[in-house]
Amino acid sequence: MPTGSHVAAAAQAGTITLGGDLTVNRLGFGAMRITGKGIWGPPADPEAAQATLRRAIELGVNFIDTADSYGPNVSEELIAQTLMPYPRDLVITTKVGWVRHGAGVWQHNASPAHIEAALHGSLKRLHLERIDVYQLHIPDPATSFDASMETLARLREQGKIRHIGLSNVTQEHVERALKIVPIVSVENRYSFSDREWDYLVDHCEAKGIAFLPWGPMAQGRAADEVIQKIALDRKVSTAVVSLAWLLRRSPLMLPIPGTSSVKHLEDNMAAAQFQLTDAEFAELGAVAAKPYWLRV
User: For the whole model, what pTM was predicted?
Assistant: First the structure.
């Protein structure tokens, strides 16, 4: 993919509709890595980070995932600084639930007061009147989960949130949340070689909820071997194979690979045009079906 070309590559992965009214291309962009080391402070190379964001839009990405804790605030500010005025079809999802006090330091806070203050902060930084998809980044052990969700539901009723998502949750959290407010997405760690949340992917698919896998690249000895074999045979990167597997895993899968490099971004976006053969998908499935201790 030539850097200067306008190729809506992300569209080739197909689309997914969130909440019945937001249709996006099914290969998005995670904006955590456009911040500094330890997800703290500004990026070492702000121009490279901005170039990556602009290239994502050129490649047809219209779903960007961020959070107020990335930086903190830096990712949201860079997105606005770089992409405003936003493309009409761009959906930005941001999250609340972590408070930052230093590089690598993450502290829970999903109290009703914090959620409301954090939402207003994100609206201001992103220069938006409403967040299209606002996610609870992680349940707070010091706050009632229902109280957090009721706060999000109230802010949705006020028109400040269009749709609500969850992150780092269990199936029980999803079911409890659905009793309070509609949920359009779940974002958990998931990849070919890290399938702890397999059952939750299936549950979300049955419920019509999009699944956003973070940490989407396969890792582990056996996983690497079979993915490297396919990548070598097909002359693509292992990232492409990992993302292509996710796209085939479920029609409601919405991968959000992140990077601060245009080159890596372009490589990731190539997955939208790559199709695993039935034999390759079956070979990967055979590895995934083995007990964990036999495939790591």
Answer: 0.93
